[in-house]
Amino acid sequence: RSMSSVSIPPPECMLRPLEVPLRYLFGPGPSNVPPRVLAAGGRPIIGHLQPEMYEIMSDIKKGIQYAFQTENNMTISVSGSGHAAMECAVFNVVEPGESVLITVNGIWGERVAEIAERMGANVHRLLKAPGEYYTNKEIEQAIEKHKPVLFFLAHGESSAGLCHPVDGFGDICRKHNCLFLVDTVASLGAAPIFMDKQKIDILYTGSQKALNAPPGTAPISFNDRACNKMFNRKTKPVSYFFDMTHLSNYWGCDGSPTRAYHHTGPVSGFFALRESLAILAERGLEESWRKHKEVAAYLYKGLEDLGLKLFIPDKVRQLKIGLKELRLPSVTTISIPEGYDWREMLTYIMKNHHMEMTGGLGPSVGMVMRIGLMGYNCEKTNADKALHALADALKNCKKSKP
Ligand code: PMP
């Protein structure tokens, strides 16, 4: 037998056509992708370093600036999912040994804490039960104590269904020379966020939630304070791929007349992202926020009518901020009803209704079930479908059956 002969045959599965079921994606993401965005992603590929592509990237940058409500020049989309943006933020602004303060009231803070620990930061966690929130006073005291260079908050804590108030934290961070990093992967387009007005130094999101693009691109923006820190480092960031000195050049944000090859961007992903940002721009942020709020309120009422209990209390009074809504309109968490196995309910709903809902994540596993109605999926008719499926599961999955 010659060295060049093939000894591993073509796999059987590869000789069968691809099958992808049609499903209602009513979990915390990915969400269903509208035909217009799917079609954009299906357009012919062009080279990633061609002027037409630069123009599309420039459009994406403007679309993100609108969605984030920022004028930051350093606004790009990271090639990767939400986690890529998390690593990009932390790797670029933090150096080994520096102090970082992270709110952990669900899984996302814990993930950022682990990312920061892996690159050698001195991580301080502000630990709370899933769905609990932090007062401005608590944050200020922790910042005074730990003197962090970076403070992290998840705006949309999707594992708990919490939409955390942001007002005031930016001022506290500025006063103490700390950068304010906010995760809006699950909330962008669904709940108001104003990067510049709320003095957020670094903001990121993902493509696959309320933006309704396929997973795989992650918008991120850095203001001048963040740029000042990340471009005056003593050490190089631990990651070559996420190094903003390279990414800012690739995205035409560094003032240089030429762009050097760094990596091959996800061309189809950028087409789809551009289309989803275009839909948001056409619709308008305010209308998108209003719609999410309206449909979420309709869903809450329907859930309560089914006898289900929402995991997050609807409103709390925060010192100096007034009455604040705490529920995340894009992802609703329900306490698991007594006498039911949540896994069985979710399997039942998938099998009989072709609908994806999920359980908790990280610390909220076993505490909640999660329903997401985001962007394109955010319609009362879809809330009705989800409620119908839940009612059916409640009828058929009771543990103490006779
Ligand atoms: N942050 C939040 C709030 C999220 O909901 C998610 C996705 N569930 C992520 C970060 C991570 O994003 P990805 O799964 O795209 O890496």
UniProtKB/TrEMBL annotation:
Substrate binds at residue 370. It catalyses: L-serine + pyruvate = 3-hydroxypyruvate + L-alanine; glyoxylate + L-alanine = glycine + pyruvate. The modification N6-(pyridoxal phosphate)lysine is found at residue 209. Keywords: Aminotransferase, Pyridoxal phosphate, Transferase. Residues 24-379 form the Aminotransferase class V domain. Transmembrane segments: none annotated. One of its GO terms (cellular component) is peroxisome. It holds the Pfam family Aminotran_5. Its EC number is 2.6.1.44, 2.6.1.51. It is an enzyme of class 2 (transferase). InterPro entries: Aminotrans_V_dom, Aminotrans_V_PyrdxlP_BS, PyrdxlP-dep_Trfase, PyrdxlP-dep_Trfase_major, PyrdxlP-dep_Trfase_small, SP_NH2Trfase/AEP_transaminase. One of its GO terms (molecular function) is L-serine-pyruvate transaminase activity. Gene3D superfamilies: Aspartate Aminotransferase, domain 1 (3.90.1150.10), Type I PLP-dependent aspartate aminotransferase-like (Major domain) (3.40.640.10). GO terms for biological process: cellular response to estrogen stimulus; glycine biosynthetic process, by transamination of glyoxylate. Its cofactor is pyridoxal 5'-phosphate. Homodimer. Belongs to the class-V pyridoxal-phosphate-dependent aminotransferase family. This is Alanine--glyoxylate aminotransferase. It comes from Xiphophorus couchianus (Monterrey platyfish).
